[in-house]
Amino acid sequence: MFGNAVRVGTIKGVEIKVHPTFGLIVLWVIYQWGYVADAGLRGIVFGSFVVTAVFACVLAHEMGHALAAQRYGLSVHDVTLLPIGGVARIEHGPLTPRTETIIALAGPLVNVIIAGMLAPIVIAVAVVTSISEALGYLIYAEQLSVIGFVLYIWIANIVLALFNLIPAFPMDGGRVLRAQLSARWGRLVATQYAVIVGQVFALGVAALGLLTGNFMLLLVTLFIVVYAQIEARNVNVEARLRDLPAGVYALWDSGGVPPSSTLAWALRGGPRDLVVTDGGKVVGMLWRKDLLRHLHGAHHDLAVRDIMDRQFHVVDASDSVYDVQVWMAETARSAVPVVEDGQYRGIITGDRLLHVYQTIGDNEWLRYRTFGRSLIQRFRSATRQI
Q: What is 246-352's CATH number, 3.30.413.10, 3.10.580.10, 3.90.1710.10, 3.40.50.300?
């Protein structure tokens, strides 16, 4: 979804990226502070500082999620800043409702802390100035002053915290809702309910955007709809993978290679990861990189047993494809042998997993398209009857 994002740095091992559409913010700053506020270049400079500070708070919000996820052993791919906020891409993993709730609330908590740190300044403004002047600062925080700048950041953090706590997926409040529902109905059903709530909320945001002429709200609506559907698809695919036994999708690959064979003989089917078997039992792994390295070194006469990896891991044929995927991701292994009652039954490779994942994913997208077309047909039928 964010493949075009540009990497701008790293924080705590997490890549920070900016999406190309972020450039829309520049145009908005020029329009809002230069034209609407009629402040010219001075207003544009002030607006640039404000937007930079606000998105620093957005980044802090997303890093709150990221650091909380890392604390529970989840890897964080990156944090991407968008014109309407930010997204922390956290690996999918088995989360308890409590863990998912903590990770979801970590972001808004950061904004609450920032707002709390700025609160003494806001209180001081209210005490030192008259009530009418203080209210003016609070309502028109974008006025070109240091106090206006501070109040804008204070209000922005309050809005970020409250908006994200709305129980509509994919906002943080929606994730909390999903976590609580999953304790009773499971993650798949809980995600479906949370997505429905999010879509209803998105319709309300879209209606408000059309009524007020605020097109930024329409962008928020688009983000909610698209990202919620992507999350629902990922959870559906995960559920499907959990139902697939590894033994069904393992490749026999000629039953592996014997440890006594030469490297040149092992290469007869092309360079790939191979399972080393003896009497139908797995005794090692011959990794593609090791095979090619020794062949390039003209060690064709070496036996497989000389370079095979004896520290191997096997999965049972009854294990789910999802468990195999998780293990391969955690260990950075490109293949794993599958056994049944101690006997070799095949190998699952990264390419095989990708094929299974794409097949299931394509079926999920087909299901969404079919569902969408049925909704359109029902809508057209209803409009014809009116």
A: 3.10.580.10
